Amino acid sequence: MSEPSEADRDPETVSRFVEHFAAHLVEAGLPRMPARVFVALLASDTGVLTSAELGETLKISPAAVSGAVRYLAQQHMVSREREPGSRRERYRVHGDQWYEALANRDAVIRRWEDALREGVTSLGEATPAGRRLAETLAFLEFVEKELEAMMERWRTHREERFGRG
């Protein structure tokens, strides 16, 4: 017996899943349209859809797709690619999108740390504000080290569970 394909799925069930999971991502801070586009890509077997396919699936305009994809690409959650032999772009979500999104936060955390160091120096480490900034800086430095170690553990776990590195 063959595995069920995307064509065998009830579109209404898929749509409910997309909207439900997207709502959770919105609650976590992702803008609504990027959340919907991201989940639609996740829910497709190939992980790749064109702008027209996303628009049709989500019942949204090409402009809404474009804005959502731009946001998701900036967050390293999707990539753009050209359809072979065509000028049409398609958008891809990768199996490691969560890893990539978190890993790319590292640069953001470092910029925050630099700004906080400057703030501690500017405000004075002995002042209440300076101490608060120093504690925030210490927290981010801790998170950065923990994130590094966690990502290494994830790579090992992923390889053991899914057989790819």
| Contiguous uncertain segments of 5+ residues | none
Query: What is the CATH C-level name of the largest domain?
Result: Mainly Alpha
Total number of strands? 3
Report the principal-axis shape. elongated
> Secondary-structure element order, as H and E?
HHEHHEEHHH
CATH superfamily of the largest domain: Winged helix-like DNA-binding domain superfamily/Winged helix DNA-binding domain
- Mean pLDDT, nearest integer? 88
By DSSP (H or I, 4+ residues per run), the number of helices equals: 7
Largest sheet: number of strands, sense, barrel closure? 3 strands, antiparallel
CATH topology value of the largest domain: Arc Repressor Mutant, subunit A
Helical fraction: 55-70%
Tally of discrete structural domains: 2
Strand order, sheet with most strands: 1-3-2
* Gyration radius from CA atoms, angstroms: 20 Å
Concise summary:
The protein is built from seven helices and three strands. The protein has 165 residues and is mostly helical.
Describe the protein:
There is one protein chain. The chain is mainly α. The protein has two domains: 89 residues, Arc Repressor Mutant, subunit A (Orthogonal Bundle); 59 residues. 67% of the residues lie in helices and 7% in strands. A three-stranded antiparallel β-sheet has the order 1-3-2. The longest helix has 35 residues. The radius of gyration is 20 Å and the shape is elongated.
